[in-house]
Amino acid sequence: MHIMEGFLPSPWWEIWFLVSLPFIIIGIYQLNRLVREKREALPLLAVAGAFIFVFSSLKLPSFNGSCSHPTGTGLGAILFGPCIAGVLGLIVLVFQAAFLAHGGITTLGANVFSMGIAGPAVAYLIYRVGTRVGAGTYAVVFVAATLADLATYVVTSIQLALAFPGTAGFVGAFSAFATVFAVTQIPLAIIEGAVIALVFKYIVQLKPEILTRLNLLSESAIRRLREAAV
Amino acid sequence: MKYGMEMAVAILIVAFVGMFLAQDAAIQAAGEEAWEGADDAAADLIEASGYEPWIDPLWEPPSGEIESLLFALQAAIGAITIGYVFGYWQGGRKAT
What we know:
The structure holds 2 protein chains of 2 kinds.
Chain A: H1 12-37, H2 42-55, E1 60-61, E2 66-68, H3 73-80, H4 82-99, H5 108-132, H6 137-163, H7 169-180, H8 182-206, H9 208-213, H10 219-228
Chain B: H1 4-30, E1 36-37, H2 38-48, H3 64-95
């Protein structure tokens, strides 16, 4: 889950705002271009944002006796890249900070970076590299979305360990936070990856032309996927 | 297999539920409290070092019920959007 209000001391919350800002500015610029040039992709953008809404509202139990929620950012990252995913993540995080006291306004920069930018960047890179080397598309989507979710919580642990190294130092603090966050997240990340891979299959079945328009899959790759019918 | 992926996801979810039930039974048997949020656990970890949050949320849901309401609303907004778009695409394909 997100870093709560007031739980990042100065200068860390300011630093993470500054780190996130350029990605968000690029994301807004890319969104503007998308809206102008590829209007047919807008419903898909809505779906990507909606997935973050649904997934980040579901607090699920994990095997170590605590609850956490998946992020849902992997889909948006694969489809539109990490900067646009960052803007989508920002919308959800503002909603949760304002109405749910979940996350916070001062920690928004750090939370946008972990959930909106770092996790999605991992998903985006895995998808791009994975499809280029010819791995199965759905398997690549699964791995990308799973690791995006996990990476988000690894980054959250790094952010907290940097701010609170305590007496154990950065490494000790990191392993303590990672035990709380990242370990809890493993089963949730796997479920998230599987569901997003399934949704990707439905997009391939229903609206493959958008995927070619976004340069995600070639027409021949889509024809192969549709014929394979897994 | 035509619905291979659907089945794989269903099996994963069933395994996930089974894992939760088994773990919950073990925790109940040990008489411990569990299933709080990981963010609360992290906050406890930080507060144990003597740190106090320097600012409080502007507004907090006044009760667990109100919080559930808002989380459910968030999920509903997302779910109706996904359903609408996929339904729209499906309808468009049928029409042509």
